[in-house]
Amino acid sequence: MNQQEENNIIILRYIKGELGDEELRTFEQRMANDPEFAKEVAFAKEYHAFQERKEFEEALKTFNQEKKEEGFFEKIEQQIDQETQKTPTKARKSITKWLYPLAAAAILIGLVLAWLLLGQTGLETSEKIIAEVSPISENFVDERAGSGFSGKDSIPIEILKIAVRAYGNGEYKAAAKAFETCLKSAKTDTDIEFYLAKSYLLMQPSQTDKAISILENLSQGEGQEERTILHLGAAYIRRGKYDKAIQFLKQEQINATDYLKKLDNLIKEAKQKKQ
Amino acid sequence: MLKIKELETDLKQKNYNHLFEKVYDHCFAKALVLMRGKGGNLTDTKDCFQEAMIDFYVKIKQKHTLGITKNICGFFARTTLFKWYKHLRANKVKTTSNGDDELIHLTESNEKEWEVFEERFRQMEACVEALTKTYQETLKAYYFEGKQVKEIAKEAQASESAIKVRLFDGRKKIKTCMGR
Questions:
Q1: Which terminus, N or C, of chain B has the lesser number of Cβ atoms within 10 Å?
Q2: Predicted complex: ipTM over 0.90
């Protein structure tokens, strides 16, 4: 094996990330001191990346061809058609088109009536979401006290009981304080975090920013829940952050299924208020 | 639930079929629903979804991360839709403006960066394809598969010196073609 072949082998190992610490240091020193070698590495690196991607693209093409032959794509389309037949979009669109003038008039009348009857108490979607009390399950404390729960050793169960009781009684200030104490010990309990945010939202509007901060953290985690998304969207709207609400909710809308309508309503509300 | 880490591992280990199976099974339907809502059909979705897969590949290779930790199907659905809009704009078809501006805003900044890589890749592809098949095979065997000159010569039923010439010339031609 000549020098050039030896170079090629070590360059390939470098590209594949197979060099050990010591080898890597020597390799990088050599690149810094030998411009010809550095050029050789640069070429090999780019060529390798190109071939690797070609390989990926060819595999993808073959996969698509096989799936096509299997009828995979058509099957998915049929499934979607079957689901949408339950609520056919075209029919709905055409009905909506004809009913627009009537619907607009009805909504207008409805709004006037609602305003007359309810005055300022008529709630918008965002405030409805916030106002709906998310009940805490009966087993909430027991689950955390019983075996098998990861945070059982660190959650102060007596304080958690106080928090749950206060939340149930509508004493959100006391609930928030107790939930906060629990979280100092068990920082990763997403349920407690949610109920703390909810307590802030229900307590008074001035506490909304605190709730937003918690909900933003929760929304970053894996397996985030619909309740987090809806409450965060609603909290943004309450604070007048309409652009942020639209951007956030739009992103989530793609993944939404059964709570799509609520998301749609929140987006509409944010857009209307923005205007 | 589809986990980004698992997809990244499949990609690194070149378990491409495993990766494609997972992504298509979990995310294609979502992309199709979204595309149909914006006037695209099954063929459009297939093409754009394929482009989204390549986008995924490029992002992981270049940045070693997708920059997201959740909602992987959301990424594929959004990227598919964005590719669709891009095609429409390229063909001067007006897109509906029912709130899609936000989507474009969300993906356009990444797209510019993507186009730079894409251009470089296409340039390399053109340069390699300009070589004869024998040259292409020799370069691939040596620089990609890590074979030795002796081995390549045996497989190609050529002399070792002929292989060395192909390697030298081939590399030189690509460098010239790439403007170096």
A1: N
A2: no
CB < 8 Å to A224, chain B? 70
Which of the residues A53, A96, A246 would you substitute to probe the B interface, choosing the one with the greatest number of B C-beta atoms within 10 Å?
Answer: A53
Flag if A53 and B57 touch (Cβ within 8 Å): yes
Instruction: Mark A16-33 as b/e (b = at least 16 C-beta within 10 Å).
Output: eeebeeeeeeebeeebee
- CA gap B63, B73 in Å, rounded: 19
Task: Give start and end residues of each alpha helix (H) in B14-159.
Answer: 16-37, 42-63, 72-90, 100-129, 133-139, 149-156
Taking a C-beta distance cutoff of 8 angstroms, is the pair B38, B100 a contact? yes
* Average pLDDT value for chain B: 84
**pTM (2 d.p.):** 0.57
Mutant choice from A47, A62, A84, A274 vs B, greatest count of B C-beta within 10 A: A47
pLDDT at position B99 = 47
Which one is predicted more confidently, A234 or A140? A234
pLDDT mean over B78-89: 83
Are B42 and A67 within 8 A, CB to CB? no
Among residues B62, B180, B132, B163, which one has the least CA distance to residue A43?
B180
Min Cα–Cα distance to chain B from A118, Å: 32
Neighbouring C-beta atoms of residue A190, cutoff 10 Å: 15
Q: Is A222 exposed, middle or buried (0-12, 13-18, 19+ CB in 10 A)?
A: exposed
A249, A233 contact by CB (below 8 A): yes
CA distances to A9, A98, B131 from B146, in Å: 6, 68, 20
Question: Do A176 and A199 touch, CB atoms closer than 8 A?
Answer: yes
* Spatial contact of A188 and A179, defined as CB atoms under 8 Å apart: no
pLDDT tens by residue, A158-173: 888 888 888 888 888 8
Nearest residue on chain B to A81, judged by CA atoms?
Answer: B33
Best A43, A48, A72, A73 member to test B by mutation, with max B CBs in 10 Å, is A73
Cα separation of A9 and A242, whole Å? 57
CA distance B90 to chain A (A): 23
For residue B162, the distance in angstroms to the closest alpha carbon of chain A comes to 15
> pLDDT tens digit string along A6-43?
888 899 999 888 899 999 999 999 999 999 999 989 99
